[in-house]
Design a protein that fits this description.
By secondary structure, the protein is of the alpha+beta class. The protein contains four helices and four strands, in the order H-E-E-H-H-E-E-H. It has a four-stranded antiparallel sheet.
């Protein structure tokens, strides 16, 4: 039972990261361009990003990749140290899932000499293009902030 509880957060993480990588694969393989889901609100449009969120630091792909590896390691340790299931743990699982999705794709694209690109495809209103991993990270950060405020 205890062993199961120890690995369960990482199983959730792998499942979410796999969903992210699978959606990116489907979008790339089908080369989905300008597919309007909801007029003027939601469009699926294949783009690539070599930077971090919203294209920041796109000229420093290797640096951001190495920095992301350190964040990844920190997240794994933090999740392991939280003993009970709570909002903080859920938020860290979401952030780690997003990190794995984007790190995995960026790492693979660095290896195959494809500039460390990450697939983005969701265009929502005025927000720059993003993917499921970015969504996990964003929701995870909001939940983490909320859990920290709730502690005080």
């Amino acid at each position: 039972m205890k062993l199961n509880k120890l690995f369960l957060p990482y199983i959730y993480t792998i499942l979410l990261a796999t969903l992210d990588l699978f959606t990116k694969y489907i979008i790339r393989e089908n080369n989905i361009q300008e597919f309007v889901v909801i007029e003027d609100i939601l469009t699926i449009d294949l783009t690539y990003n070599t930077g971090i969120a919203f294209g920041l630091l796109s000229e420093y792909t290797i640096f951001t990749y190495i920095l992301s590896i350190f964040v990844f390691i920190w997240l794994v340790v933090q999740i392991r140290e939280i003993k009970e299931q709570n909002l903080e743990k859920i938020s860290l699982i979401l952030i780690l899932s997003g990190a794995i999705g984007n790190l995995g794709e960026r790492g693979w694209n660095l290896i195959i000499d494809n500039d460390g690109k990450v697939t983005d495809f969701v265009e929502l209103l005025f927000i720059p293009s993003f993917n499921l991993a970015d969504t996990y990270i964003s929701i995870g950060i909001v939940l983490l902030i909320f859990s920290e405020i709730k502690k005080d």
